[in-house]
């Protein structure tokens, strides 16, 4: 299936708009729900817990009011340290108890956060590997993924600056390092530099991916992946001409990055500018990007 030029321009115009005030209110209700759960739970009294939205809702790049909200609950009084942007090695994990002698292990914190959430919602699903899932309340707040995490300090070595992120210990015994604060700040700056074209392009590519999945053209991909791809488009490309022209050039630029002959996907980064876009442990491969971009180019009837 291909869109006509008029259909394409109409869709791009629709995707230009950021979340409405009503959607922002729904996000705030989700954040308040989690904050209330944490504040009312007696074992958490006096602890340094930070409750913040992260992901597409926080970054104003969500394309549907039905999408989940991501809320992190960060335990700030216990910090883990590692040399990698992606996580800790065996020895770094083994040494971590030496820096903290308190009772709050990842297992205990996860358990208590689950109890706290059930104090404000009886429908909490605690079976997921990473986050607690709190179903939506129609007309009030969206479904919410609540992520228990700890402060993570990356110390890459002499001559390289340290960075602070978060680490999530999953139920299957693994851990995931996130850099949501850097993602938020860098995204805002790029959006300012491009006269709001950056987040427009992110929403557009996410919406196109949704269409392509429904049409059976590609497999479903994490929405964060689309944000990562657009972040690597130069500002000058995103600000060139009309929305239609800018998006066409953005797709063209990205397709070149994945050319078998002259592409350099290994140079691409996540919006946090700390992690490479393609490395071990990621939920996507270069072939996923290639299929997505080629299908989007054909669907939008460019070229």
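-> sequence recovered:
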């Amino acid at each position: 299936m291909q869109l006509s030029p008029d259909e394409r321009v109409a869709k791009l115009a629709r995707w230009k708009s950021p979340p409405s005030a009503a959607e922002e209110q729904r996000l705030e209700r989700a954040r308040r729900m989690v904050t209330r759960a944490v504040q009312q739970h007696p074992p958490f009294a006096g602890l340094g817990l930070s409750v913040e939205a992260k992901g597409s809702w926080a970054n104003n790049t969500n394309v549907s009011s039905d999408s989940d909200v991501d809320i992190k609950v960060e335990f700030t009084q216990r910090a883990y340290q590692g040399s990698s942007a992606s996580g800790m090695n065996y020895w770094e994990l083994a040494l971590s108890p030496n820096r903290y002698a308190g009772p709050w292990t990842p297992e205990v914190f996860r358990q208590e956060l689950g109890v706290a959430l059930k104090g404000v919602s009886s429908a909490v699903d605690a079976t997921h590997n990473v986050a607690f899932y709190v179903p939506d309340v129609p007309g009030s707040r969206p479904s919410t993924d609540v992520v228990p995490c700890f402060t993570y300090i990356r110390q890459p070595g002499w001559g390289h600056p340290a960075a602070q992120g978060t680490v999530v210990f999953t139920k299957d015994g693994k851990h995931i390092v996130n850099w949501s604060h850097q993602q938020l700040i860098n995204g805002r700056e790029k959006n300012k530099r491009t006269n709001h074209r950056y987040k427009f392009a992110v929403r557009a590519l996410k919406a196109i991916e949704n269409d392509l999945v429904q049409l059976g053209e590609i497999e479903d991909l994490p929405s964060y992946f689309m944000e990562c791809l657009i972040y690597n488009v130069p500002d000058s490309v995103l600000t060139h001409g009309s929305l239609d022209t800018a998006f066409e050039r953005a797709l063209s630029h990205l397709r070149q990055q994945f050319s078998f002959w002259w592409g350099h996907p290994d140079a691409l980064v996540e919006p946090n500018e700390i992690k490479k876009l393609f490395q071990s442990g990621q939920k996507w491969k270069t072939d996923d990007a290639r299929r997505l971009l080629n299908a989007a180019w054909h669907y939008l009837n460019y070229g």
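Residues 5-14+196-299 form one domain.
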